[in-house]
Amino acid sequence: PATMNLDFNPKIFALYPSDVTDGIIKHELVHYHLFAQHRGYQHRDHDFKQLLAAVGGSRFAPPLPMSGRHYVYQCTRCGRQFVRRRRINVNRYACGVCRGKLRLQATRNN
């Protein structure tokens, strides 16, 4: 916010319709306006939440599709799957839910 520049991800404008992008623009303008007025401009601040609701801006950005190579790991104990962009050492890391061993299931190229 210190530079007072608005940054937008061009992928969102290419993938989503204008009603979604309008909400994102309103979201960023609320940040800009509150920062300039020295009021609470962060997501957790009451001023931000209140003004965002008043102008009808979106609270969260829509998800973007994953691109590139991804590694899918599965826990051998609980069966939960984890998708990672980087390859991990299965001997060093364990499942975050049940502490079971991880196994590389697949590699995806998106």
Q: Would you kindly provide a written description of the structure presented here, covering whatever features stand out?
A:
The protein is an alpha+beta fold and 110 residues long. The protein contains three helices and three strands. The chain has helices at residues 10-15, 18-36, 46-55, and strands at 69-75, 81-84, 102-109. It has a three-stranded antiparallel β-sheet, with no helix packed on it. The two termini are 33 Å apart. The model has no long low-confidence stretch (mean pLDDT 92).
Quick recap of the structure?
With 110 residues, the chain is an alpha+beta fold.
Largest sheet: 3 strands, antiparallel
Strand residue content: 15-25%
pLDDT averaged over residues: 92
User: How would you spell out the order of helices and strands?
Assistant: HHHEEE
Low-confidence stretches: none
Given the structure, what is the number of helices? 3
State the total count of DSSP E strands. 3
Silhouette: elongated
Structural Rg? 20 Å
Structural class: alpha+beta
Record the strand order, biggest sheet: 2-1-3
Q: Compute the separation of the termini in Å.
A: 33 Å
The helix content, as a percent range, equals: 25-40%
Which keywords apply here?
32% helix; alpha+beta; three-stranded antiparallel beta sheet; 110 residues
What does the secondary structure layout of this molecule look like, with pairings?
Elements: H1 10-15, H2 18-36, H3 46-55, E1 69-75, E2 81-84, E3 102-109
Antiparallel strand pairs: 1-2, 1-3
Helix pairs in contact: 2-3
